[in-house]
Amino acid sequence: MRRLHACLSAAAAVVLAAAGTTALVAANASGATPQDALSNRWYAAAPYLMPLDNDPPDPAAIMDATGLKAFQLAFVLAPNGGGCSPTWGGTAPVSSDTAVKSMIDTIRAKGGDVSVSIGGYGGTKLGQACADPASTAAAYQQVITKYGLHAIDFDLEEPEYENTAAIKNEIGAAKILQQNNPGLYVSVTTAGTADGTGWFGKQMLLEAKSQGFTPNNFSIMPFDGGFNGAASQTSALTNFNAILQSTFGWDEATAYAHEGFSGMNGRSDTGEIFTQSDFQTVLDYATSHHMDRFTFWSINRDRQCSPPDNGGRTSGTCSSVAQSDWDFAKYSVKFAGVTPPTGTPTPTPTPTPTPTSCKPAWNSSTAYTGGSEVSYQQHNWKAKWWTQNEVPGASTWGPWQDEGTC
Question: Which residues does residue 379 pair with via DSSP β-bridges, in sequence order?
Fold first, then answer.
């Protein structure tokens, strides 16, 4: 997928000065108020943005123009010189970053938020560089703590996902982060094929199953693999749904509730063309099947090339198709349930049932089937489908239905 990241990131010459940002824990201890999280639907709709490479656009201007609230910042990698510490693009240490932090502050000041993506195509991943899942998780925890993250994306693709030990580290780290950061939105993104995903993608799913790890979604990238417009993409999503069912024992609806789409706007690395109408078709599929995620690579490319090149080249800074600025971002806004550029509508209040006795307490290690009832934070909850380690109430779109106070 991320070939443009590998070949263009060297063009950036960003020197990050020493920074001091307060961890969430420290903020709470000092009385400071951390940024409120958006709904999971927004993290699921966040398009990828390279904050240091590929001519980063102004996120505040995009938010004003489209109503977009969330961005997926890419990519956190191991240092190019070796080691198990997080960097932006292999060159800019997270520990001393001020540039990305400044962008995040700008987005949050306008009522938005970010997720951070780790991995991608090219570079050395922390799962390859760190010794085990615990040390891999510790490296990623530095990123979560520094930026006060409520969401994180594991972009597991070639060549890393061909490395069994690295994938074990990544999936193990994802599980640890999920357990240690209650309510953290976790997506896992991997390559897409006409059959859904390839052999290595399926092995990654089996590793997740063996570790008892269930993220908010497993997303595929149906491009750079002989795809031809939206029909081939929706076919791949249908096939991937069947893979999720067979791997995890889910029914169709549960599989869709844990499935995501990550597209590429305009001309792909291999010359495929995906237009606005293709995005609309896939969006209709995703919403009608109640999928959990709809995103794309990338918002750096969500503008027309100058001069227009009619699809003749693939660029990291423009789409190579006819468009107005931020046309593709508007599909993310639609997925999140907002009509641009207005804000999120106020939901209709749901009457609170009369308090009753509390059901057995929710346990993060217990696997619950649809209809199971638990109690959590003085509320009773009923499982809509099979779930494990998904915190009741963490997401409006999650597996738990609030049955009222107890």
Answer: 376, 405
**Alpha carbons 288 and 74: distance in angstroms, whole number:** 29
Tokens representing residue 140 in the block? 């990623």
CB 308 within 8 Å of CB 275: no
Q: Which of 157, 160, 259, 390 is catalytic?
A: 157
Is pLDDT larger for residue 289 or for residue 28?
A: 289
d(CA 327, CA 332): 10
SS3 363: coil
Which of 207, 154, 217, 142 minimizes the C-alpha distance to 180?
142
Contact 336, 44 (CB under 8 A): yes
Nearest to 52 by CA among 82, 16, 80, 22: 16
CA dihedral 171, 76, 24, 381 (to 10 degrees): -40
Compute CA distances 1 → 210, 237, 388, whole Å: 26, 17, 30
Q: pTM surpassing 0.85?
A: no
How many CB atoms are closer than 10 A to CB 99? Answer: 17
CA distance 381 to 392: 7
Residue 157 bears catalytic tag: yes
What letter represents residue 249's amino acid? Answer: G
Q: What is the pLDDT of residues 126-160, one digit of tens each?
A: 999 999 999 999 999 999 999 999 999 999 999 99
